[in-house]
Amino acid sequence: MRDAEFFRRWLVAAASAVEREADRLTELDSPIGDADHGSNMLRGFTSVVRELAAERPEVPGAVLQLAGRTLISTVGGASGPLYGTLLRRTGKELGTAAEVSDDDLRKALYAGVGAVAQLGGAAPGDKTMLDALVPGVAALGTSYRAAAEAAEDGALATVPMQARKGRASYLGERSIGHQDPGATSSALLLAALADAADETADGTADGTTEEDA
Fold this sequence. Notes:
The chain is mainly α. It has a single domain (4-198), classed as Serine Threonine Protein Phosphatase 5, Tetratricopeptide repeat, CATH 1.25.40.340. It is built from 8 helices and no strands. The protein has helices at 4-29, 37-55, 60-74, 79-94, 102-120, 130-138, 144-156, 181-198. Helix 1 packs parallel to helix 3 (60-74) and helix 1 runs antiparallel to helix 8 (181-198). The radius of gyration is 16 Å and the shape is globular. The protein starts with a helix and ends in a 15-residue tail after the last helix.
């Protein structure tokens, strides 16, 4: 079972990953976006860590909802609303339970990803964050590490795609040959989740879910 501390650990790991990869995210965003994805994500997740330390939510759902609200208020462009929606909806689905199962989290993330798709009007294959999130969350039924790997593969698969949504879609065929920065940061988020799961001492430290244990 996963408590609020697990979710804080996940988001702190995500913030560290974003800080480490911020320059790369901006580099990916430069040819097909506004060249600010790295700086925007860094500002947002730095704020998330600060708010979580200040408020210390006591249940998983509250942790994610606070993180989502913070991202919406601090991240510019489309990324804030999209990432904020992902975490807020996931947190809402988890409710007020003090602990949640891996299956609870998987189902909640499905709802969060669905809310992102609805907000952005996008689908897998449109060269967006969904190209990492959809396969990543689907692979959670196998293990957290499998989810991270599927998300990374999904991000890499955006390179030959032509963007059909977002700022990159304005470039038409010129968007082909570039890895989508949103899919890349989404893969970082799921990799951080796998890292948080690896750190646990509840019998799932090898990255497998409770269903596999």
